[in-house]
Specification:
With about 290 residues, the chain is mostly helical. It is built from seven helices and eight strands. The protein has one domain. Strand 7 and strand 8 form a beta hairpin. The chain is elongated, with a radius of gyration of 24 Å.
Length: about 290
């Protein structure tokens, strides 16, 4: 093999490797973003809430708190989404992670492979990590394949190199197939502007559950995650739109806060259960508590 080709192989390999490590680092060490303090219950409201024995009275306290907040989604029975553990009203698309023991903005799932909760603050980094991992495995498999052919045609005589080539190709293809399913699934989620949790349980609006409630069309959905500057899409830098507390909805028929309407129809609500998810393609695990 000529030297120029070897240099090209090594250059491409290290470029992909740097982005692979960079995105993995950002996925692991970017902390999940929590709701702003304005969503938390004040000391006075907390005392009123704890001293109130009637469920309808507690709901009324939450209604008063929600009047000033940009919350448009509810629980399945129409009540305000409130976290008893964190003592706050949940922003839209926010869920409590039982592993991290906190509410996470636009929570997607908790991933043990990066030992972190994937949400608004690091979802872009997680997607790029999957993309560069997929590219990394594909590049290794492609560059090793011709030596694998030589292995079968008996052009390679060194038994050690035969084993190394066979093992490397097998591992690269195995991870490539697994990552392909996982990355493809998340690409579909981004195109529909859904999180993993919303794919399993549609968000509830004033008119009921709507799995496409945040679907704004392919281009705007991509901009929600990657931002408007396309030159930043492939870089693991912060470029997502918004602050994670409010998200544009597909229809603006709910132009005003739906929590102010039909208060008498709200029923008693128990604390929303912890949500904890993990998924890794067809051969990986999905764990969720909803």
């Amino acid at each position: 093999m000529c030297v120029s080709l070897l240099v090209a192989y090594l250059t491409i390999f290290h470029v992909i490797f740097v982005f692979f490590i960079w995105t993995y680092w950002k996925s692991v060490f970017t902390p999940p973003q929590q709701p702003d303090k304005k969503f938390q219950m004040s000391y006075a409201d907390k005392e009123r809430y704890e001293n109130e024995d009637r469920p309808e009275g507690q709901q009324q306290i939450l209604v008063e708190m929600a009047r000033k907040l940009p919350v448009y989604t509810r629980t399945g029975n129409g009540a305000i989404r409130f976290c008893d553990r964190c003592q706050l009203i949940k922003p839209d698309r926010c869920h409590h992670c039982s592993v991290c023991a906190m509410c996470v903005l636009k929570m997607d799932h908790h991933c043990p492979w990066v030992n972190n909760c994937i949400g608004f603050s690091n979802y872009k980094f997680f997607l790029l990590f999957l993309a560069y991992s997929l590219l990394y495995c594909m590049y290794i498999a492609a560059t090793v394949f011709k030596y694998f052919i030589k292995f079968w045609t008996a052009e390679l005589t060194n038994s050690r190199s035969k084993f190394h080539i066979l093992f490397l190709l097998f591992v690269a293809i195995m991870f490539f197939v697994s990552l392909l399913f996982l990355f493809g699934y998340h690409c579909w989620l981004v195109s529909q502007n859904r999180s993993t949790l919303e794919a399993f349980s549609a968000p509830v609006f004033q008119n009921g559950p709507d799995k496409n409630g945040f679907n704004l069309g392919l281009v705007k959905n991509l901009q929600q995650v990657f931002g408007e500057e396309r030159r930043l899409w492939l870089l693991p830098v912060v470029s997502s739109q918004g602050d994670g507390h409010f998200f544009p909805m597909r229809t603006w028929s709910e132009a005003r806060n739906p929590l102010l309407a039909n208060e008498e129809q709200w029923e008693e609500e128990g604390p929303e259960e912890d949500t904890h998810g993990c998924h890794l393609g067809s051969s990986l695990i999905v764990e969720m508590e909803t």
